[in-house]
Specification:
The chain has 75 residues and is mainly alpha-helical. The chain has 2 helices and no strands. The protein has a domain at 11-61. Helices cover 76% and strands 0% of the residues. The radius of gyration is 29 Å and the shape is rod-shaped. Residues 11-45 form a coiled coil.
């Protein structure tokens, strides 16, 4: 059953709803970009830390004379 409420709704009300939805979409898009930037920074920091750890492990391995154990593979 169609009660016809959308037909009875004034054009201005539709435009207001559209404006609100567009503003919400813009806020969400801005937040999405901010979160993408944060994720990118976390990934960069993780990879830098991973490289530091790998370098540290290699140095530790070379400082131990006669130590022939394999270094652990970094993920």
């Amino acid at each position: 059953i169609n009660n016809g409420t959308s037909k009875n709704m004034p054009k201005q009300s539709h435009e207001n709803k559209l404006a609100v939805l567009q503003a919400d979409l813009e806020k969400i898009s801005v937040e999405n970009q901010r979160l993408k930037g944060m994720l990118n920074q976390v990934n960069n920091n993780y990879h830098a830390l991973q490289m530091h750890l790998f370098t540290y492990m290699q140095r530790q391995q070379t400082r131990r004379p006669g130590n022939h154990t394999q270094t652990h593979e970094m993920i």
